[in-house]
Amino acid sequence: MSKHSHTAGCRKLGARLRRLRKARGWTLQDTADAIGSSKSHIYEMETGRNPNPTIGTVIALADQEYEREYAAELRADR
After folding, report:
1. Which of the residues in the chain have pLDDT under 50?
2. Residue 55: which of 69, 39, 70, 35 has the closest Cα?
3. What pLDDT is recorded for position 65?
4. Cα–Cα distance measured from residue 71 to residue 62, given in angstroms and rounded to the nearest whole number
5. Nearest of 39, 21, 32, 41 to residue 60 by alpha carbon
6. pLDDT digit string (tens) for 59-72?
7. What is the 3-state secondary structure (H, E, C) of 16-67?
């Protein structure tokens, strides 16, 4: 995968995370608190500035039901 593809993929994922967070009515801080992270870390993920979130962060987001909503969006994109 090229660096450009990777960066574009991170931005796309970040945009989805942001949509899901906002749909839930959560702030960056709400999300950070829910998964034991920092507000700046969530912001960096949403803006594509953190292209390599840890597996722990990804699992924590999934535990907050982002996975269900994200999976539904992926199916809708097909």
Report:
1. none
2. 35
3. 65
4. 10
5. 32
6. 787 777 655 666 56
7. HHHHHHHHHCCCHHHHHHHHCCCHHHHHHHHCCCCCCCCHHHHHHHHHCCHH
